[in-house]
TrEMBL record, chain A:
UniProt keyword annotation of Iron present: yes
Protein name in the entry: (2Fe-2S)-binding protein
Domain 2Fe-2S ferredoxin-type: 2-79
Keyword Membrane carried by entry: no
Pfam families: Fer2, Fer2_2
From TrEMBL, chain B:
Organism: Arcicella gelida
UniProt xrefs under SUPFAM superfamilies: Molybdenum cofactor-binding domain (SSF56003)
Pfam families: MoCoBD_1 (PF02738), MoCoBD_2 (PF20256)
Protein name, UniProt field: Molybdopterin cofactor-binding domain-containing protein
Xref: PANTHER family: ALDEHYDE DEHYDROGENASE
InterPro entries associated with the record: Ald_Oxase/Xan_DH_a/b (IPR000674), AldOxase/xan_DH_MoCoBD1 (IPR008274), AldOxase/xan_DH_MoCoBD2 (IPR046867), AldOxase/xan_DH_Mopterin-bd_sf (IPR037165), N-heterocyclic_Hydroxylase (IPR052516), OxRdtase_Mopterin-bd_su_IorB (IPR012368), TAT_signal (IPR006311)
Limits of the Aldehyde oxidase/xanthine dehydrogenase a/b hammerhead domain: 205-291
Domain of life where this protein originates: Bacteria
SMART domains registered for this protein in UniProt: Ald_Xan_dh_C (SM01008)
Length: 162, 721
């Protein structure tokens, strides 16, 4: 066991964990933020996607020891608990989630995409989102919602998706 | 909780009724990650089991069907709300806990709205009538001068109003009307409209509570190494290395109790899930496979093909005319066999359960499809009274049938009892993929006879495979065919006007754990049924749509679905060079769905250009959700058609995680259009009926494009014959 300093959604945490503990379980069970989900443990499904300094990563396959105290980790709870971000508004407008379990990861990947490309094409979306599995089959709505979020961001002049 | 007035179970306890239910409502972010374990919370006056109204105006509606993504968290409360004259943002929705007063609480068989639409509406209408009567008494005016709107009762002439909260005490003294007047469909404000689902905001900000998010003080985590082969016994195990993993507290022998057998297992229990998982990897176990290392899916299918050579047990109700005679004298005979694989459900939330056994009492927090079905199983397993089992029902992160099989809950119960602490068992993705239960592998052996005009004079569908009723429910099926297996191919669900018809079932017993999987047998039986209709159409040199319509003249709802499909999919227009269209139609769970799939050539394989779907599910609750479910069924049906099945060799499942058990991803998602046939019929199911006709529609399209007939699923869409 070792002590690690983490910055999650702008808050500092000091956690006691084994060096090989995946960030996913640190976020869920040490920090107590349950919005980030476990799906496969092998970086295959994207349910555990969080941002590390703005870049989407698979937290299930990121050992805590590889992180620095200066790294900024953003989880779904860091997007907006009030669901007033462009991406969340679009997700609600399009009624994207069914069971909803994969949607935290979907949204984290979508936010990262929109930061890179403020007006993504369908093929941009396919490329950026193909690492996120949805077993319920919400893919058509995810596509629509990302386009809608891009519009909302353009209207508000906000380019971060948040 | 005490009971005073048994007629209505309403109690005044400082005007509050306390009942033992502890899952917090959705939508209050601050309270969501700790499940409230306080034994009782003051809720309100229970006017019937599904409706509680507090005298400060709070209204709670109970949803008696756990939500696995199909929308029951909205659909059932919406049925109440429509008649009660409240909107969903005026109420709090809670899931029921398995108590008998709520009736059957299994989400499955696309049954939630189908079976509950009248009882739920009547519940809302009865309470509304009581509230209106209470108001008329308070005002001393005729009932006919009062009406309800948005959680208030108004007196029309004076414009005065009372909130429901102000009326609940008075209303609770009234008789419950037995036959309350239901609203006319034309007066619906909520039903049939695409009302936003109330839990969606919590599913986009991380606050929705799924089973895996249960968090009980003092909870330990467990990971379980089960027999790697289909069944097995632990000969010996060495947990010493596991115990050295920091955080590991116990290594204990345990079992996985399935309906048809129990297999042995070793569990590692630790302070954190990661420690439990590491400990599990350090276990050394000697297994006795008990002969199950000889089990293979290849041998299973070989057996099905052998069985298909003889007649199975006939479905007597499906018999039309004399098949043997008609087939014998048919001008043209067509025969074909279709095979569909074993499949894992692979819900994205793996099976998990948190259970706390305290003496002869137990509390459970788990994603499950039916709390009322779980209670007796847990009680029997722990040898305690059913009333001592308390179940909390969070959201399920997908289930598709899997979470109505409670092996993972019993595992957590076993371990909690052994270590005397709350224990959370979380299956890994590998556990979920490899351990089953699976959709059973099935074979359809088809025979069809045509006369000289191309009419179908004889049709035979022989279903060969294992039986869920037999294995899971112990139905011996000695001299009877499995009546579930014929769904979508029976005369009601596939009402083609064949001059003669027969169907039979051949039971193939197996130790491979099997279970219903989204749409149950309809997803396997419809493949043979609707592909073969296409084969017969081609044999008759008739357009497959015209061929179907001709035989569905006496089935107007089917004809209308197909005619709508033809229009929406531009079926009769000439397609661009190198494209073809295929269709299929199937009724399952009371709903008819037809798909038209347009494909084009792409290298050695085909590309899906577009899927157009038409659904007739009768009266609609939430049209947008019906579309969403149909889109989801296209995705799952396409995955089942072109991605890996489950194969077992030497007793071991050959697929372990999403790199080997591939599922459809967004970049493979075709364009979809879903249309609803609007009508006033009783509601049919929505969660499953879109799936069965998908694979045959796709394969029929591929035949039209390439001339290759696909009769075995899954197939490689990038490399067609």
């Amino acid at each position: 066991m070792a002590k690690y300093n983490l910055n999650v959604n702008g808050k500092k945490y000091n956690v006691d964990a084994d060096a090989d503990t995946p960030l996913l379980w640190v976020i869920r069970d040490h920090v107590g933020l349950k919005g980030t989900k476990f799906g496969c443990g092998m970086a295959l499904c994207g349910a555990c996607t969080v941002h590390l300094d703005g870049q989407p990563i698979r937290s299930c396959s990121t050992p805590i020891s590889t992180l620095k105290a200066t790294n900024k980790i953003t989880t779904i709870e860091g997007i907006s608990v009030n669901t007033d971000s462009a991406i969340q508004k679009a997700w609600i407008e399009e009624q994207v989630p069914q069971c909803g379990y994969c949607q935290s990861g979907q949204i984290m990947s979508a936010v990262a995409l929109l930061k890179e490309k403020s007006n993504p094409t369908d093929s941009d979306i396919d490329e950026a989102m193909s690492g996120n599995i949805c077993r319920c089959g919400t893919y058509p709505r995810i596509r629509k919602a990302i386009h809608r979020a891009a519009e909302l961001m353009k209207d508000s002049g906000n380019s971060t998706g948040k | 909780m005490t009971q005073q007035n048994s007629r209505r179970d309403f109690i005044k306890a400082s005007t509050m009724l306390a009942i033992g239910f502890s899952l917090p409502s959705i939508g209050k972010a601050e309270s969501l990650h700790k499940i409230d374990t306080s034994s009782a919370s003051a809720l309100g006056i229970e006017l019937n089991p599904y409706i509680l109204i507090n005298d400060d105006g709070k209204i709670i509606l109970f949803n008696a069907r756990p939500d696995m993504g199909q929308g029951t968290y909205q659909s059932l409360p919406l049925l109440i709300a429509e008649e009660l004259e409240v909107t969903l943002d005026q109420v709090e929705i809670r899931n029921t806990d398995g108590q008998g007063k709520y009736g059957a609480q299994l989400s499955g068989g696309s049954s939630s709205v189908r079976t509950r639409w009248l009882p739920m509406r009547k519940a809302g209408a009865a309470v509304k009538e009581m509230l209106i009567t209470a108001a008329s008494k308070k005002w001393q005016v005729p009932v006919s001068e009062c009406y309800a709107l948005e959680a208030k009762v108004f007196h029309k002439p004076s414009g005065k109003s009372y909130t429901y909260g102000e009326l609940v005490e008075e209303a609770s003294k009234l008789e419950i009307p037995k036959e309350p007047k239901l609203k006319d469909q034309k007066d619906f404000k909520l039903l049939g409209k695409s009302v936003p689902r109330p839990e969606i905001p919590s599913k986009v900000n991380g606050t929705a509570v799924f089973g895996i998010d249960s968090d009980i003080p003092g909870m330990l985590y467990a990971s379980i190494e089960r027999s790697p082969t289909i069944h097995g016994k632990v000969v010996s195990f060495d947990g010493s290395a596991a115990m050295k993993v920091k955080g590991v507290k116990y290594v204990v022998k345990t079992e996985r109790k399935m309906p048809h057998k129990a297999v042995e297992a070793v569990a590692v229990i630790a302070d954190t899930y990661w420690a439990a998982l590491k400990g599990r990897k350090a276990l050394k176990i000697n297994w006795d496979a008990q002969g199950s290392d000889k089990i293979s899916t290849d041998a299973y299918f070989e057996n099905l093909r052998n069985l298909a050579k003889t007649d199975g047990i006939e479905y007597k109700n499906e018999k039309v005319g004399d098949f043997n005679k008609a087939f014998g004298s048919a001008t043209k005979k067509v025969e074909a066999q279709y095979e569909t694989p074993f499949l894992a459900h692979a819900p994205l939330e793996p099976e998990n359960a948190t259970v706390w056994v305290q003496g002869d009492k137990v509390e459970i927090w788990a994603p499950i499809q039916g709390p009322d079905g779980l209670i007796p199983q847990v009680a029997a397993y722990l040898k305690i009274k059913p009333e001592n089992v308390k179940v909390n029902v969070p959201f399920m992160g997908g289930a598709f049938g899997r979470k109505a099989y409670f092996d993972y809950v019993l595992e957590a119960a076993n371990l909690s009892k052994q270590v005397n602490a709350p224990v959370k068992v979380i299956w890994t993705r590998e556990d979920d993929t490899m351990q089953g239960p699976f959709r059973p592998g099935m074979l359809s052996a088809m025979q069809g006879g045509l006369d000289e005009k191309g009419n179908v004079v004889a049709h035979n569908h022989k279903i060969v495979g294992s039986s869920i009723q037999h294995q899971v429910f112990g139905n011996p099926l000695k001299n009877a065919p499995d009546d579930w297996a014929i769904e979508t191919a029976n005369t009601e669900d596939s009402p083609y006007d064949f001059a003669s018809r027969k169907a039979s079932f051949h039971l193939a017993e197996t130790d491979i754990p099997i279970l219903w999987w989204r749409s149950v047998y309809s997803s396997t039986t419809a493949f043979g049924q609707e592909s073969f209709i296409d084969e017969l159409a081609h044999a008759a040199k008739t357009d497959p749509l015209a061929f179907r319509l001709d035989m569905l003249a006496d089935a107007p709802r089917f004809s209308r679905v197909l005619q709508t499909l033809a229009k929406k999919a531009n079926y009769h227009q000439k397609l661009p060079e190198g494209q073809a269209i295929g269709i299929a139609v199937a009724r399952s769970f009371g709903t008819i769905v037809a798909h038209a799939v347009t494909v084009s050539k792409s290298g050695k394989g085909v590309k899906i250009e577009k899927v157009v779907s038409v659904i007739d599910c009768g009266m609609t609750v939430n049209p947008d959700n019906i579309k969403a479910q149909t889109e989801g069924n296209i995705v799952m049906g396409l995955t089942a058609a072109i991605k890996n099945g489950i194969t077992i060799k030497d007793g071991l499942t050959e697929q372990s995680n999403f790199h080997q058990y591939n599922v459809l991803r967004i970049n493979e998602m075709p364009k979809t259009e879903v249309y609803i046939v609007d009508n006033q019929e009783a509601p049919g199911g929505v969660g499953e009926p879109g799936l069965p006709p998908f694979a045959p529609a796709l394969c029929n399209a591929i035949y039209n494009l390439t001339g290759t007939r696909i009769r075995t699923l899954p197939f490689d869409i990038d490399n067609i014959g």
